[in-house]
Amino acid sequence: MIAEAEKILQTYYGFPAFRPGQKETISNILELKNTLAVMPTGGGKSICYQIPGLTLDGVAIIISPLISLMKDQVDALNSLGIAATYINSSLTTGEQQQRIQDIQANRYKFVYVAPERFESSYFVQLVKRLPIALVAFDEAHCISQWGHDFRPSYRSIVPNLKALSNIPVYVALTATATEEVITDIQNLLHVDHEHVINTGFERDNLAFHIVKGKDKQSYVRSFLAERKNESGIIYTATRKQADTLFDQLTAKGYSVAKYHAGLSEDERKKAQAAFIQDEIQVMIATNAFGMGIDKSNVRYVIHYAMPMTIESYYQEAGRAGRDGEPSDCILLFSPQDIQLQKFLIEQSLMDDEAKRAEYRKLQAMINYCHTHSCLTSFILEYFNDTHGKKSCGRCSNCVNRTDRTDMTKEAQMILSCVKRMGERFGVSMTAKVLKGSRDKKIKDFKLHLISTYGILSNYTEKALTEWIHFLIAEKLLATEEGRYPTLRLNQGSVDVLMGKQTVWMYSTVIPTSESADYR
Ligand code: ADP
């Protein structure tokens, strides 16, 4: 049967060979094994369910939370001469009914639907009577509560579907899935371990960069001036940030579009269309923009502030370079970003357990912004992806790896300060003590009396904060998760304190007392 699939790949799609993971996914599905495919954005997930959909008898149902993408997918199939349609809230009731009738008359091979469709028992009954080839869950991480874009309504339809006896096989597809999400999807959809196809996440055309200690607005302005004719997205953490940046850039004569959930549908549609059609090169947006935007020539994605999780960062940054061409993913970090994300977690309606999980993810994101190791490897390790090489050679940490300085002595001072403070305080208090700050809280806790008070007073508090984060990121210091996490020593700290481990910092990222950026 796989030979037939290969033939379809060549004749219908015109591609000479499968990409990594496609063949395995397709043959699992053809053997009617529930399958989970984790492949990077642009990896070619659609073909994984489309080819089996063409091979197996009956109609393939694809459930997708991305209404904006359905039409594109359907148009693409229609242009290949394949009968496909979609049903979602963008259609009138009349149109929906017409399409349902056509589905009943077996006029389609592929039907794309939004998850909400399965909340209607009428639709579930309709599906029950159809000959079904497969049911695919696109963006499957959204059905997991551990996913970064959990949609409870997507998850809640799973039991309705599993109750149907005429669905021969389920397929789940996603570009981002941690171990937790993978296990969750496996349990929900009954996917055996050997039917999880995980090709790894590495997108080797993407170069990741962290930019710190710069004025963000002027950085963006000079960046845009340099990369004039390229398409790019600038993600902000809040709508307000998007509005402000939009106004600032527009006032300076830049042609930019903006997109966030506070705008009217019409405004959003216009902005999106202008960007997709290359009328406007730069899109300033919150994370409301992008899910389902299939624009292949995005040359850069700038994050104007640190996002909350590596999952969402990788997904948003991953909208760059879908065409495989070299592209940049730049994160502009400032220490205030951490406070903002904590504030957003506190403001959310999540229960305490969910908040704790979110703080844990946030800590990983903070670590990403402070590590001196390869950024690509950091991300891949976060997703437990062991496919990647040790260092990518493209990211800002790999490229900046020129001369390094032995900072073991300073690290020992910081670590012993944490110890002397009784491992009861967080990053900012520790930085204050090292600096010798006259902050009232220091006196209240009598921290000005300990021997490490002011021991690194020739550095700014900001620089010291940066170092502490660096030690955490390099696992040389532990921190708890939460709003006010306290610092603790770990085995790495002990090794540094005992002189068993040297601490190197790369000079380009060492904040010094002389550096204007850190004053
Ligand atoms: P994903 O959903 O994983 O982000 P798509 O399914 O949209 O990716 O595929 C990305 C691009 O790669 C599409 O333009 C698709 O036609 C192309 N593609 C998919 N499979 C192959 C293949 N085997 N050979 C060449 N191109 C492919």
Automatic annotation (TrEMBL):
Membrane in keyword set: no
GO CC annotations, alphabetized: bacterial nucleoid; cytoplasm; replisome
Enzyme nomenclature, EC number: 5.6.2.4
GO molecular function, one term: 3'-5' DNA helicase activity
UniProt cofactor(s): Mg(2+); Zn(2+)
Domain Helicase C-terminal: start-end pairs: 219-366
Enzyme class: isomerase
Domain Helicase ATP-binding: 26-195
Sorted UniProt keywords: ATP-binding, DNA damage, DNA recombination, DNA repair, DNA-binding, Helicase, Hydrolase, Isomerase, Metal-binding, Nucleotide-binding, Zinc
Reactions mediated catalytically: Couples ATP hydrolysis with the unwinding of duplex DNA by translocating in the 3'-5' direction
Biological processes annotated in GO: DNA recombination; DNA repair; DNA replication; SOS response
Family that this chain belongs to: Belongs to the helicase family. RecQ subfamily.
Name under which the protein is recorded: DNA helicase RecQ
Native source species: Virgibacillus phasianinus
Gene designation: recQ
Residues represented out of the complete protein: 1 to 519 of 713
